[in-house]
Each structure stands twice: as C-alpha cells, then as structure tokens.
Design goal:
about 20% strand; globular; seven-stranded mixed sheet; aminotransferase; about 800 residues; single chain; alpha+beta; Aminopeptidase; Aminotransferase_I/II_large
C-alpha cells in the first residue's frame, strides 16, 4: 500500500470545527444587553452558565469594573507604545503588587500565548533540550517548535508519565546543559493535575532538569494570594522553575504573568523577549482592573472567595457521585469532564442541555483525541446550588437519550476513556432488527459470485485475490508477515446486501504517516531495534491492496444503520485485538461520508492520488497517442519512445525458479528506496504464489547488453500485474534496479508497457493505484484524490511524529 500523506493539521481542525458549527455547538454568539456571569443568552434564550473560566467571578466585581472605567477616562482606550520604550503610568503599581503576590520577580505579558512565544526562545539556550508533556497546552507546544530553527531537540512523553520522563532525561543528560520539561499545572480539559512534588523529587535526582509550567487554569482559585496550583504545591519557587500565571480568566482582568526566581534568567528575558519587546502593552483599562484584582488577591478576601468556590465544587462532586455519568477525573478543581466518546454524541448532548437551559462547553479535537469528545463543565461562584443540582439531573436524564440517538452506549464511552465498566441504570439500547451481519475469517467462507458482485473490478481484492493474500500472509516466521482477515456483509430484512467490506489486523510502522526524513531517522534506530515505533492496526483493506474497499449502497434507506452495525462489529474486534488505531481507507472525497466519519470519531488524512485509465481503446500505439494531450505526447516522444529500444520486453506468467530472488530484490529496492511508502517488506514466497496463480503476470524489462557495461542482458525492471475478475488490469507493484533506473527511464517505460499490455489483452480499465500521479497522468491516467479516516487510541504517536518532524 502507498503511504498516506500526513494531513495538514489545520485542514483536520477545520473539518471537525465545521461539523460542530453545523450542529450548533461551536462559534456561537452571546446576545442580550447585559451579562452578569450567572446566565448567558444564546439565540435569545437565557442559559445557566457552566462554561466560564472566570471561576471566582471577579470579572463582574464592581471594583474591577470601576477601576477599568476610570482608567479609560483618565488615560484613553490604549497606550500605543512598546514597553521597551516606556510603560503606562499604572504598570509600575501592577508590577509591584503582582511581585508582592509571588515574592519573586515577574514580567507582565500581553497574553499567555505571546508570553510563551517571547519567553521560551529566550529561556532555552542552544545547549538545552526540551521535553513536552503530550497534553501541555497548544500555545506552549507552538512556541517550543520555534526552537527547531536553532536545532534544539524537542522530545515528547505521554501525559504525566514520570518513568518516560526519567528515561528521556537519562538519554539527554550527557549531551545537553539543561533539560526543560514543559507541562501545565492544571490541565484545561479534564481538570487533572501535574504531579508537582514527584517532579521536584526527580529534579533533585537530575539537577539538569528544569521546569516550565503553564498554570493559567490553576490561577486565583487556589494558593497563597491566589498564586495558583503550582505555588500551592511548591510554596516557594525554585531557581529551576519558570511559571506562567494569568491576569485574565479567574483573575478577572487581562494579560499574563511570568514568575522567575533566577535573577540572571529574569534579566535576560525582560531585556529582550520577541513579542515582549514588540507587542503593544496592556490597555489602561486592563491594567487598572488587574491592579484592583491584585489588591483583592493580597487581602484575606481571596481565601473567602476560594472557599465559596470550593463549597460549590464539593457540592457538584457530591451530586455527581450519586450518578452513573462517566466523569473522567474526580478532583477538587473547577473543571469537570463528562465523556461522550463520539463527536456526534457530544453535539447531541450539548444541544439537549441547552434546550434544558444550561450552557456547557464541548471538548473536541484537537483539545482532546477525536474519540474522547465530551462536555467540559466549569463551576464558578456565579453558580448556585439549585442550578448545579438541576444540571446534574438534566445530564442524568439526557445522557442515555444522547447515546441512543447516536447509536452508541455507555460501555463504549467508558472504554474510550479507559474507565472501568459501570452500568447506566437508565440506559436505552438501540438495535436494528432489520439488519443482519455475516462475519467470516476467510474468503473461502463467502460465495465467490457474491463477493465478486461487490469487488470484481477493484484492485487485488476480488475473491481470487483475497485467497492469494490469505495464503501469502499466513504461517510466516516474522510477525509483520502474518495478518488476520475479517469479512463483513450486512443485509436488510429481505437479505439484500447493504454493505460489504474486509479488514486486516497487521503490524504497521507508525511512521507510515510521517515525512520521509522522519522515517529515515526512525529506520536508523530500527537497525538495532527492528520493531521500534510499530504497532498493530485494524485497517479496512490491507497494506497490499488499494482501491474502494467498502461496498455501500448509499441509496438504501438503511445505509447509516448499516454503517453503525459495522462500527459495532469493529468495536468487538477492538475489544478482542486492542489495535493502536482503526483505519478506514481509500475514499473519494464524498461530503456525506466525510461528515459521518468525523461525527463518529474518525479524523481525515489525505492519501496519495490514485490513477485510473477507463475505457481504454487500444488498436495500436498511434491510436493510443492520439488520445493523449499534446503535453503527454511530447513526454512520450522525449522520455519513452527513445528508450524502448534499450529493452527486451518479456511477459511472464511464471517466474523461473532461478529468477525468484532477482524479482524479489527488485521489488525490495523500490520499497526500501521510497521511505514515503514506509511499510514492512512482504514474504519472499509471495513471488512463488504469484507465479502459481493464473491471475498474476509479470512485465519484465531486460536491458540489452549493448546499453550496459556487461556482456549479457540483465533484468532491470518488473511490473507485478494482476488481472481481476472484473476485467481490470492492476499493475500492483513495481521493482527496479536503481543502477539503471534513471539513465534508461525504467519506470516510465514500465508504465507505457503496462498500458500496451492491458490494451493488447483487451482490458478497458487499468487501475494504477496510488502515488506517482504526475507520472501516471503522462500516460493517460485520470488522477483522483483519495482520503483515509483514522481513529487512534490517543494522539500521542501522531503528535510525537509531528514533533520529530519539527526536529529534522
């Protein structure tokens, strides 16, 4: 199979957000003439507000409002000068008060994201290394990636994995002066905490270990002087810690604050820090409001406000404890997360709660893995116990209904979040009795004519092709050469097939989705550790086949039900096999399926373009050339025709025993040379099985001795071609000798000879498969975009590969 191209991250986010916007849960506008914090008006309906990050409600405090208003009248709406030149008159007072809060030097920044962009490149030297927690905030990750221009290595560990962190520190400690671990104090989606005290113990063991903490969601509602979660654990800030807090969110104003106990490092950052130097400073109103808030934080009042909030948090926890709702993490923070699993279930649940009068946030990709969608509930001092209790009652009522509406269940949701099974006493199970599912482990258990009625003209997965694949990928020594096959046919109540497909369970290289440069680095590691970054995948189709692996009668009124039944069967396999991800492959860009897959927890990635010649009318070379564009005819004249005389062209139905090794070597040359197609090799006996099959033949280019520095003709190229039941000619794989490939245009010659051979056999269709679309277009192929959809256990491997790409 050809490599799936790494998808543009923003394209994926755009697709997911577009679907969520259509469902009415993102990109909303609040309306109304006044906002108090307890309620928010959306679409002219007042909703109790459980989505704020102003946990203490200070953004509505009269003292902050009055200070902001007076500052505007005294100083204007902004102070349009860089702080490098001169700071606003109120800045000195703000800096003094925030400094007093922390007891350490501080730097005020315009916002947290710009702060990270300014501080990280200044704090991290060229002799340092960076380790990111997998779930550290996007703004930290984005700022850290700017270090790649200075060749600073960036590693990543699984969320809160101390063992993995220590392994990374050990590996890096002999090469780098400082090793920075970057993490959140309180994570914004699930409300879980960084293991601060354990991290400090680790730094005692490894003095090179330094920390960069983003604690914006831990700010104000806890800690001495409201200095946040990190300070509540540390009490005093060590020299090896850089801490970011916020003056927005719970603090009630705007801006962010960097706290640095190391004076030398502090002076370096303050002197010049990119956006810290060139960005506009905070507006007078924001500075004045922040001063008013700082005064509250420096008084005993902050502890009363914290206690008021904690009372509400404890009440919400006690109410949730009475339910079966899948709360992802029980904690004492204001952030709660109820899992829904699939995005479409999250959309349904959010809309149901809005109709009941409650506003909550949707947690969705990329903030969480796409299959870990849920609702993010935040508790603030604005919330009263009666509406907190009412929210819980509404969730208990509507959660099972949202599951039933979206063809899922509580066990599926809990499994997605690795929660222990717990029955939902109000569960509503949906099962369509109108559909039946036939599942098989071998193609021999399925009637040949039936299977071929779906897939006879698709690649190498008609009935005979799958029989060949089952023989090839069984009873081999290497784990990557043994596959499990799963076949599904779903029928309506009259026995008419609505859906058919097959899946394979096989070992994949995780960097199959990565750029070639990343794969090259990983392959260097695999020289000693051959299964480094490999995992088992349950994929539609197989690594050997390309094409439309899903038969779906989308004109049938029950096609969506059939897809849900397929997903249910895949869940059973997921429980049984525990693959790292499930992949649905080789789809045309059909909008209805695109939205359907996104809604059910799969994100889209782009595949290489596919090439196809249809309605081939071959009566000879001249007639064929007349069907090409003028540009393609020039290509034939310059790059194909002059080299045809270099070769003897042989068509073999059987591979001579003394040539099996040669053919396999040519095949492996192409696989190893193209790290963009970074899969494991195939079993060597594949060649013998092809040779024994009536469906396979081989187009062999033998370079004449007169064109080479040898005394004999030598085979330099071979096209492995399959003739399926649907009369489609499939040049499935290519093999080449790269010593001669470019000087003699071997690949282009093989493409032309493939067209010629298919035409002479009377085939009307040639399925060139994926990749090399530019070359295939030149011989008359129509190029089509293809996509795949992936559901991963988590985003770690994909984001790790992205980070490795940043390091190249």
């Amino acid at each position: 199979m050809a490599k799936i191209r790494r998808n543009n991250f923003l394209d994926t986010v755009n697709d997911v957000f577009t679907d969520a916007t259509k469902q009415g849960v993102l990109h909303l506008y609040a309306d109304g003439d006044i906002f108090t914090g307890r309620k928010i008006s959306v679409n002219e309906k007042l909703l109790f507000h459980f989505g704020t990050t102003g946990y203490l409600g200070l953004e509505q405090d009269k003292r902050l409002k009055k200070a902001a208003a007076e500052a505007i009248y005294r100083y204007g709406t902004q102070f349009p000068l860089s702080k490098t030149y001169i700071s606003h008159p109120l800045y000195r007072s703000l800096e003094e008060k925030v400094n007093q809060m922390y007891g350490h030097p501080i730097i005020i920044t315009k916002n947290t994201s710009l702060g990270h962009m300014g501080v990280i490149p200044s704090a991290v030297s060229d002799q340092d290394a960076v380790i990111l927690d997998h779930q550290v905030h996007w703004s930290v990750q984005s700022a850290a990636k700017t270090l790649k221009t200075r060749s600073v290595p960036i590693e990543m560990i699984r969320h809160n994995s101390l063992n993995m962190l220590e392994d990374k520190v050990k590996k890096l400690s002999s090469k780098y002066r400082k090793i920075w671990y970057m993490a959140d104090g309180l994570y914004s989606m699930y409300g879980d905490e960084a293991p601060i005290l354990e991290l400090m113990e680790l730094s005692n063991k490894y003095p090179q270990l330094h920390f960069y903490f983003d604690d914006v969601h831990g700010m104000s509602w806890t800690g001495k002087n409201g200095t946040g979660f990190i300070m509540s654990k540390l009490k005093e800030l060590p020299d090896n810690v850089l801490l970011f807090g916020t003056l927005s969110k719970t603090f009630g104003a705007s801006g962010s604050v960097l706290v640095c106990a190391n004076k030398k490092r502090y002076n370096k950052i303050k002197t010049f820090g990119g956006p810290l130097t060139f960005s506009a400073q905070l507006e007078p109103a924001s500075v004045a409001a922040a001063i008013a808030s700082a005064e509250i934080h420096l008084s005993d009042e902050i502890y009363k406000l914290q206690q008021d909030l904690l009372t509400r948090i404890n009440f919400f926890n006690s109410e949730l404890a009475k339910t079966d709702l899948p709360l992802i993490k029980r904690n004492d923070s204001p952030v709660f997360y109820i899992g829904t699993g699939m995005p479409i279930t999250g959309y349904n649940f959010v809309n149901r709660l809005m109709k009941e009068g409650f506003f909550v946030n949707l947690g969705i990709f990329p903030a969480v893995p796409i299959k870990n969608t849920g609702i993010r509930i935040t508790i603030s001092r604005h919330n009263q116990k009666k509406e907190i209790k009412a929210l819980v009652e509404a969730m208990v009522h509507h959660f099972p209904k949202a599951l039933a509406d979206t063809f899922t269940n509580n066990d599926r949701v809990r499994k997605a979040f690795n929660l222990s099974k717990k029955p939902l006493h109000t569960a509503i199970e949906y099962e369509s009795e109108a559909l039946s599912v036939q599942t098989e482990r071998s193609i021999s258990s399925i009637e040949k004519s039936l299977w071929n009625s779906f897939f006879a003209n698709h690649g190498v997965f008609d009935w005979n092709g799958l029989q060949f694949l089952e023989q090839t990928f069984s009873e081999n020594q290497k784990p990557e050469e043994n596959w499990e096959f799963y076949y599904f046919i779903i029928r309506d109540q009259l026995g008419k097939p609505v859906l058919a497909t097959y899946f394979t369970y096989a070992l994949w290289k995780e960097d199959m989705l990565a750029p070639a440069s990343v794969s090259q680095n990983i392959e260097n590691i695999r020289l000693k550790h051959p299964y480094h970054m490999t995992s088992y995948v349950l994929a539609m189709g197989s690594l050997f086949t390309e094409g439309s692996h899903l038969y779906l009668d989308n004109n049938h009124p029950m096609w969506q039900d059939a897809m849900h039944r397929l997903f249910k069967e895949l869940e059973k396999l997921d429980d049984l096999l525990n693959p790292s991800m499930i992949v649905l492959r080789d789809f045309d860009n059909v909008e209805i399926l695109n939205e359907f897959f996104h809604n059910h927890g799969y994100f889209k990635v782009s595949m290489p373009e596919a090439g196809m010649i249809e309605n081939l009318q071959w009566t000879g070379v001249e007639n064929y050339l007349s069907s090409l564009s003028s540009k393609s005819r020039r290509h034939f004249k310059n790059d194909i025709a002059p080299f045809e005389a270099h070769f003897e062209v042989e068509i073999l139905n059987k591979v001579p025993s003394n040539q099996v090794e040669k053919f396999y070597m040519l095949f492996e040359n192409v696989r190893k040379n193209n790290l963009g197609l970074n899969t494991f090799g195939f079993p060597k006996h594949m060649i013998q099985l092809m040779s024994a099959s009536d469906e396979w033949e081989f187009i062999v280019l033998i370079l004449k001795a007169s064109f080479v520095d040898t005394r004999k003709d030598i085979p330099v190229g071979v096209m492995f071609c399959y003739k399926n039941e649907g009369k489609t000619y499939v040049p499935a794989f290519v093999g080449m000798d790269y010593n001669y490939a470019f000087n003699h245009q071997v690949y282009r010659q093989l493409l032309f000879q493939t067209v010629k051979r298919a035409g002479e056999l009377g085939f009307k269709t040639i399925d060139f498969g994926l990749t090399a679309g530019f070359e295939k277009r030149k011989v008359g192929a129509e190029i089509r975009e293809k996509s795949a959809y992936i559901q991963a256990k988590d985003n770690f491997s994909l984001e790790l590969l992205e980070m490795m790409d940043a390091n190249k």
